UniProtKB/TrEMBL annotation:
One of its GO terms (cellular component) is cytosol. [4Fe-4S] cluster 2 binds at residues 185, 189, 192. It comes from Puia dinghuensis. Its cofactor is [4Fe-4S] cluster. Monomer. [4Fe-4S] cluster 1 binds at residues 40, 76, 110. This is tRNA-2-methylthio-N(6)-dimethylallyladenosine synthase.
Amino acid sequence: MLESLSSKVHDEGRQGEAYAPVVADGREFRKKFYIESYGCQMNFSDSEIVASILNDNGFGATGNYAEADLVLLNTCSIREKAEQTVRNRLQVFQQVKDNRPGMLIGVLGCMAERLKEKFLEEEKLVDIVVGPDAYRTLPGLVAEAETGQKAVNVLLSRDETYADISPVRLDSNGVTAFVSIMRGCNNMCSFCVVPFTRGRERSRDAISIVRECTDLFNKGFKEVTLLGQNVDSYYWLDETNGRAVTFAHLLEMVALVDPSLRVRFSTSHPKDITDEVLQTMARYENICRYIHLPVQSGSTRVLQLMNRTYTREWYQAKVQRILSVLPDCGLSTDIIAGFCSETEEDHQDTLSLMEYARYDMSYMFFYSERPGTLAARRYKDDVPEEVKKRRLEEIVRLQNRLSLEKNKEDIGKIFTVLIEGDSKKSAADWRGRNSQNKVVVFPKGDAGLQKGDYVQVRIDGCTGATLIGRPVI
Ligand code: 5AD
Ligand code: SF4
């Protein structure tokens, strides 16, 4: 219930999205798989790797689980609610399986390690459990499960990056794509389960990243988002010439693929985003003016408990630095309300920091204790649920006000908008985004524009979530 409050503006609002069938380059498939993904963008990106592995092994995708031979749930553990949702879905699939005994059900992703015994043995909800670093073994595990055995591989790896696998773009708009550049996380924020579910941080071979982006561009894609839990600590050593590739270098390499390929990235940790990255962004117009910079809390005391390694003042200076190098940069953040021991004063610090940074958008959550994390071991989850809820409401209300104010400031401006498709509300309007990542809606008119085109749009209205404009002819 509390969670739904935050869903309006949070990334992981893409809950349980299933993929439409894929017509895969004329290949014949013996069997069908269905995959539903939960959680962060990385999980959605992983599902595209899984689809590629399955296509190579005779499985084609279907958007209808009732006809699938293999039903997969790519799961998220970041908050308790996400886990509950997955359990409910598994029960629905079990009912289908009762009438189709040959059907196999698998759990992938972040819940795999923690809940493998529960799902397989105690509740007998699934046949296959595969962790995020073991997707290459999925075909073997399916074969094992077909013989009636329970098939599990939740081993984490220090070097798996799936660099050589070409993701199958599932449910794609053909214009924007996500490209995974690293996996895992070494940061150990005390509230976060990711370092445990996804393992150590490792960076993917830069050459394979540039190749994937070039390939996407050649297929007509116009925007890539480079994905990692902490992209600014990207580091890859090119053994052919001994050159180290940092995130700033990688950004430049991808920006050089083509000036008409937009480049975005997510997520940045405030402690790691360098001046070099900001300067590289300033040098290339096709690197979008938008940074997602999770703050988590505005109180230095809470930030310390969260192990974020920066203070409120340090974060504020980072925001100033970003805006001095990139004055028109869009900023968004992640905020957690009601972390262990958070006082009313700490909460006010969060609100005032939001006012300071004037975020265009935020992903807002209330704290949900995750087993095994530093916070679960060290601190008491002592902020009562109704207090968490009220604080989250105040945060959401403030963000709604800030988003509307920021959008109003854009009225009268002209932006270059990349068209991504029809507006959700009307097929007579296009929907796209500007460099700052704001959604822009405008009438199609008879300008002969197409999905994937860039168009200059003058803004003449807005809501808190959308800019509304007209093409400049
Ligand atoms: N409770 C609430 N929110 C969390 N996040 C991560 N772990 C938790 C948790 N235990 C949020 C953080 C992070 C985003 C992806 O999810 O804000 O940046
Ligand atoms: Fe979790 Fe912190 Fe790593 Fe993000 S940076 S994945 S919040 S540990």
